[in-house]
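A.,

Following up on our hallway conversation. Structure tokens first:
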């Protein structure tokens, strides 16, 4: 298995490598490469993988080596060749970890004087020492105005981040073997992607861009692709998932699988559990909507009564269906999902439709500034590069010390010293060999037992992590590849299972499914086969085998195979058989002994 830092050891070349955007979240890591062609902008590479547990916390990289390994795997999946010029990797970091401020300055200032003024002014806004910060700023031309004192001014947007955060990005790119490009704020990158897709409108068009991320929600009031106000609220999709997990008493990964099916707005669901989960989601999104209203009211108190034209939703929160209708009805403004890919050329099988609003941030990070027809904020918190420890003792990277040189004429002296040392060791060993040998062996055995226990504990932790990753992979596969639904067939199996039959496992295939388990007699197996064959979802049902085992002769072990019909999106209508009382999928203790939950498998 590849994915180590040695694989992408790109050669040195004067030719610039491809620019790749990457978005790192606590649930997934996404990679996108764009190219500008004669017909427009094309998505040439795309890949997405789940994030290993505890490697990203609050949107920041906590384990650069593990994240770099996933990045290597992403480039392999996307088809980035490990030879030739090294790709330039543009990363995004969450807005809550960056200090973003607007500062008015007089127009027409020289660049060097402006840099000095902004740096001096930053000391009043940045809560940590400027010497430990990476800064960048940009003029916003559309904010040019004449103040009440008659001075012509324009706003400067300033961003500052601690150097240790930038260093983790460097370490992740080092472990992947690629060149680190820009580091920018995820919310600003999303605005650039939406501006390229034409969502920002003409001059003076006011929008509120809401980036619903896993760990927080970024709120920005934008005019003509320039952010005039921004804040982050520590309420995200992780908050929603944890609330559903507690309410339904299920684990986090199971709650995560419910999000794409939440009936947030519209008709109430028939499933009471989904209704309960939807009520929890409405509570969380109500809190987020309250924060949107507070943000708009605060900005209006500063800028006067403004007209908001639309609310644009982006980020992982867009996986919840009808979220735009829910927020629009609460806020009273036109609310839409922002699809930064809508004017781009791409393979439709590469990205599913409902996942596209989630990718606005990574699309914005992969865009070249020259591609945007209108001005957009382009901040790079990595423009200063990586400062070596030799010149800056505040840098966080570790520089290996230079190894001393050993010249060719010293082997004889070294050999003599080695022989003398060995002789002294031998003499000391034999002179002090009165220690109990058994005590040494006992101490060694105890140390080995302690180490074995530690290794066993690590193996158990790795097993739990692997199980969690497999569940996250299933959720991501559902979003990316539109996994087929088999809930209708589960309903048909439950409806047609007679009393006295215990289902042990169900295996779903492309055009059939297999059911196996135990029954009290052969007649119950035959009844289940006939019941399934009468279902409107099954073309044919047959018994593969039915026999009594020597170890448990009172039960009949059986296997059925049912060939399915195509299933529509709606729930299958009730048949005459559904009028009878619902059969027991889980029989009582009087029916069968040794019940266990059925295992479900989906064949690719």
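Then the amino acids I'd put at each of the 604 positions:
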């Amino acid at each position: 298995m590849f994915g180590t830092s040695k694989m992408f050891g790109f050669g040195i070349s004067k030719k610039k490598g491809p620019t790749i955007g990457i978005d790192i979240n606590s649930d997934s890591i996404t990679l996108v490469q764009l190219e500008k062609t004669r017909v427009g902008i094309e998505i040439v590479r795309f890949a997405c993988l789940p994030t290993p547990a505890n490697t990203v916390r609050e949107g920041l990289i906590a384990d650069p080596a593990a994240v770099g390994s996933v990045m290597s795997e992403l480039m392999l999946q996307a088809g980035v060749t490990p030879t030739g010029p090294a790709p330039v990797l543009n990363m995004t970091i969450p807005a809550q970890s960056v200090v973003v401020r607007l500062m008015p300055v007089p127009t027409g200032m020289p660049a060097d004087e402006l840099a000095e003024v902004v740096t001096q002014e930053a000391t009043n806004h940045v809560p940590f020492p400027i010497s430990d910060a990476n800064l960048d700023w940009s003029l916003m031309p559309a904010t040019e105005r004449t103040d009440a004192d008659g001075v012509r001014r324009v706003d400067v947007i300033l961003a500052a981040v601690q150097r240790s955060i930038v260093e983790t990005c460097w370490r992740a790119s080092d472990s992947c073997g690629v060149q680190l490009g820009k580091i920018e704020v995820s919310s600003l990158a999303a605005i650039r992607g939406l501006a390229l897709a034409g969502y920002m409108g003409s001059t003076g068009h006011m929008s509120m861009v809401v980036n619903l991320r896993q760990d927080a929600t970024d709120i920005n009031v934008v005019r003509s692709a320039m952010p005039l106000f921004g804040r982050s609220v520590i309420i995200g999709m992780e908050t929603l998932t944890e609330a559903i997990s507690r309410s339904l008493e299920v684990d986090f990964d199971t709650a995560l699988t419910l999000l794409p099916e939440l009936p947030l707005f519209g008709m109430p669901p028939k499933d009471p559990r989904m209704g309960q989960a939807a009520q929890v989601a409405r509570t969380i999104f109500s809190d987020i909507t309250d924060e949107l209203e507070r943000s708009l009211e605060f900005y209006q108190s500063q800028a006067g009564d403004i007209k908001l034209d639309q609310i644009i939703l982006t980020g992982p929160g867009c996986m919840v269906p009808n979220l735009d209708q829910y927020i629009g009805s609460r806020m009273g403004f036109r609310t839409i999902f922002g699809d930064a890919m809508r004017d781009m050329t791409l393979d439709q099988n590469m990205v599913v439709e409902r996942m596209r609003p989630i990718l606005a941030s990574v699309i914005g990070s992969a865009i070249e500034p020259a591609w945007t027809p209108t001005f957009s904020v382009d901040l790079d918190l990595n423009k200063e590069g990586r400062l070596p420890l030799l010149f800056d003792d505040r840098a966080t990277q570790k520089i290996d010390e230079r190894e001393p040189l050993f010249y060719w004429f010293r082997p004889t002296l070294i050999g003599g010293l080695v022989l003398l040392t060995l002789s002294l060791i031998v003499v000391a060993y034999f002179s002090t060999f009165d220690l109990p040998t058994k005590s040494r062996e006992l101490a060694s055995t105890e140390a080995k037992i302690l180490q074995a226990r530690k290794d066993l504990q690590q193996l158990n932790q790795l097993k739990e992590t692997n199980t969690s990753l497999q569940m996250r992979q299933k959720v991501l596969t559902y979003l990316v590849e539109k996994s087929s639904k088999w809930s209708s067939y589960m309903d048909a199996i439950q409806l047609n299972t007679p009393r006295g039959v215990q289902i042990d496992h169900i295996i779903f295939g492309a055009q059939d499914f297999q059911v196996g388990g135990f029954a009290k007699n052969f007649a119950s197996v035959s009844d289940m086969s006939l019941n399934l064959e009468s279902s409107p979802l099954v073309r044919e049902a047959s018994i593969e085998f039915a026999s009594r085992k020597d170890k448990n002769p009172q039960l009949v072990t059986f296997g059925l195979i049912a060939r399915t019909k195509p299933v529509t999106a709606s729930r299958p209508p009730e048949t005459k058989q559904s009028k009878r009382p619902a059969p027991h999928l889980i029989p009582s203790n009087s029916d069968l002994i040794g019940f266990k939950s059925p295992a479900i498998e989906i064949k690719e």
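The chain has 13 helices and 20 strands. Curious whether your intuition agrees with the design.

B.
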